[in-house]
Hints:
This protein has 147 residues and is mainly β. The protein is 10% helix and 44% strand. It is globular and about 45 Å long.
Amino acid sequence: xxxxxxxxxxxxxxxxxxxxxxxxxxxxxxxxxxxxxxxxxxxxxxxxxxxxxxxxxxxxxxxxxxxxxxxxxxxxxxxxxxxxxxxxxxxxxxxxxxxxxxxxxxxxxxxxxxxxxxxxxxxxxxxxxxxxxxxxxxxxxxxxxxx
Length: 147
């Protein structure tokens, strides 16, 4: 049996809808670790990311404390956290760097949940000429639920 183009399009749309991942719920405290490792295999930087139920986020990195607002989104590429920095205390972060202040605008972070409950955090994925999604090279860390 042959499907007409319109029926085939509907079948493809249903398939894409069915495989789109559910949104990620971020609430509570997570430990962020960089993918880069230093002496003894320890992360170069570790932070605490705290997510509030009303879209508030606090990042504690070294002595620096940054307040943000965030939301999660899902699109055809997968799951995202969209955040915007609001304030910083201007103290050194986990790398010893001091920021010049808050950079305006939103930042999109690609999220990949592992079966263990941790979430790999990445920059925007790339696509090959044939549309294949490439994520790995843009990943810079992982967050782990605390507690």
